[in-house]
Amino acid sequence: MKKLRIAIDGPASAGKSTVAKLVAKKFSYIYCDTGAMYRSTTLKAMRLGIDLHNESKIVKMLESTEITFKPSEQGQLVFIDGDEVTNDIRQEDVTNSVSTVAALTNVRSILVKRQKDIANDGGIVMDGRDIGTTVLPDAEVKIFLIASVSERAERRFKDNAEKGIHTPLEELKKEIELRDYKDSHRKVSPLVKAKDAIELDTTSLSINEVVNEISKIVENCQK
Ligand code: CDP
Ligand code: CDP
């Protein structure tokens, strides 16, 4: 069977990582969360007290930083230089700063190169903002997931509640809108649907329904 490259892009909380993981499992493919790479870069820079607009310092830091993934019973674990940071990279301060770091041209070129290397052998589901446009422009399957801002804020609200975090819904909505705005308006590889991507509106779809839709597209491509 042909080992495909599946690109899943879209705005914050559209369901990309949840669905990407399940599609990867179904086809026994690797899953690569590129957002975790931008989050890890941001977390390390914050811990080192580097100004998040200081591109040359962040680039220098990143060149000697190893970001790795390891599958586990609890899902995929993320490591910076061997230290586990899976939960730390999801903290609100990282979430609210990551778009600033992700807008830095030379940070993107380093991470995009690493992402291309990871996807080199195919059999991969990669999710992010610029996978179908920049990282894997020749991906056999390109999906662009969207959902209304209200639905996405509610999804994040529920995720937070499970972790004991109670940020008001309106605040989450504003954070999501601001991050989408920054991600869509940056100069380098902004969040945009690739011309040949299939758009799926997940506002009123369950996770299983989205996985089934994508699986049908993948199976058609494998024929
Ligand atoms: O899961 P969530 O939607 O919160 O975001 P994420 O996928 O973890 O990505 C976090 C941030 O990293 C995004 O808001 C973008 O600023 C940046 N990102 C990017 O610029 N390009 C990617 N391929 C992936 C993430
Ligand atoms: O990766 P991204 O930020 O696009 O979203 P996510 O972290 O995969 O999904 C955010 C939340 O939405 C998770 O709790 C998912 O379980 C939930 N979700 C949903 O309720 N319905 C869907 N069709 C997809 C995701």
From TrEMBL:
Major localization class: cytoplasm
Pfam annotation, one family: Cytidylate_kin
UniProt-recorded name of the protein: Cytidylate kinase
Gene Ontology terms for molecular function: kinase activity
Keyword Cell membrane included in the entry's annotation: no
Keyword Cell cycle found: no
HAMAP family: Cytidyl_kinase_type1
Subcellular location: Cytoplasm
Family according to the record: Belongs to the cytidylate kinase family. Type 1 subfamily.
Organism taxonomic ancestry: Bacteria, Bacillati, Bacillota, Bacilli, Lactobacillales
Keywords: ATP-binding, Cytoplasm, Kinase, Nucleotide-binding, Transferase
Record field: transmembrane: none
Domain of life: Bacteria
Catalysed conversion reaction: CMP + ATP = CDP + ADP; dCMP + ATP = dCDP + ADP
Sites where the protein binds ATP: G10, P11, A12, S13, A14, G15, K16, S17, T18
Domain Cytidylate kinase: 6-219
EC class: transferase
InterPro entries reported in the protein's UniProt record: Cytidylate_kin (IPR003136), Cytidylate_kinase_dom (IPR011994), P-loop_NTPase (IPR027417)
Organism of this sequence: Apilactobacillus xinyiensis
Record-listed E.C. numbers: 2.7.4.25
Gene name linked to the record: cmk
